Automatic annotation (TrEMBL):
InterPro entries: LysR_HTH_N, LysR_subst-bd, WH-like_DNA-bd_sf, WH_DNA-bd_sf. The lineage of its organism: Bacteria, Fusobacteriati, Fusobacteriota, Fusobacteriia, Fusobacteriales. It holds the Pfam family HTH_1. This is LysR family transcriptional regulator. Belongs to the LysR transcriptional regulatory family. GO terms for molecular function: DNA binding; DNA-binding transcription factor activity. Residues 1-58 form the HTH lysR-type domain. The keyword Oxidoreductase does not apply. Keywords: DNA-binding, Transcription, Transcription regulation.
Amino acid sequence: MDIKDMEYVVTIAKLKSFSKAAATLYVSQPALSQAIKRLENKLNIELFYRDKIKVEVTEAGAEFVKEAEEILKSISQLENKIKLLQYKKKKILSIGISWSYGRYFMADILKIFKQKEWDYSIKVIEGESRFLEGQIEQGNVDFGIFPAPIYNSNLISYPLLEEKLLLAIHSDNIKALTIAREQEIIQHGVSLSALSDFPFILMKKGFKLRNIVNHICYNQNFSPIVLVESENLNTCLSLVENNYGITILPDIVLNKSNSKQLEFFPIKDNYNSRFLLLVANSSILKYIDLAQLAEEFSNIYFKNQQVKNNL
């Protein structure tokens, strides 16, 4: 029995599902089931009652979970203490940032570090936000910048700015533009359901932005015609710039677009915005004031936006 076995059992007990636990642990469900079966055979006990509806711990399983949680907590505390000792000596600061956002924010972050004269080399790690959350909790990334929500309750977060979600349509897409313009005049925003006959370019299923779009479509009682799914905001933008469909993207991305062939429209829905967060493990607070860093980042970003708007 090792630490991984304990993590498996505790996660299954918490989620009451092998499939959900497998997704959370980034392992396949068959591999997880086999690991639990091996552990049960080794201990000669059953840890879980299994049926088609849910999974419950047995009496022995509940005792195992109780002890395992204490052991895992102690291990985590020990790891954090070691990491703090190492942190004092490190000269590399690792920053995690969602795909597509690095080009918009890294210059502002480096500007803050330069002003503070912090003696750190910067290592940038890009990826999907759930992956970055895991890297932050494990101590492989010091802090990250990505959209809400965060799914790990052990992490702390500070709001940086609010992103408005906008509908982007190519100027040659006359039918879609006509509908969007009429909607904006009448109700100060576009109902996506009015464009249900047009192909959409969207982020892949499971991505946070796609979840928001799906929620909007559900609220408006339609399923979008998805022509292309992507993992990158800029890919979605590029395809719309070439008039392959319409898309919904954060205003931060669209404001950086130099295309004069796109028109942007506000979306008529309660879920038409989201917050961008600065996310970290609490251990970093002893060395970096993240609240101040978040405030300085926001100030620099909005100052740059004001300069751009005045040009």
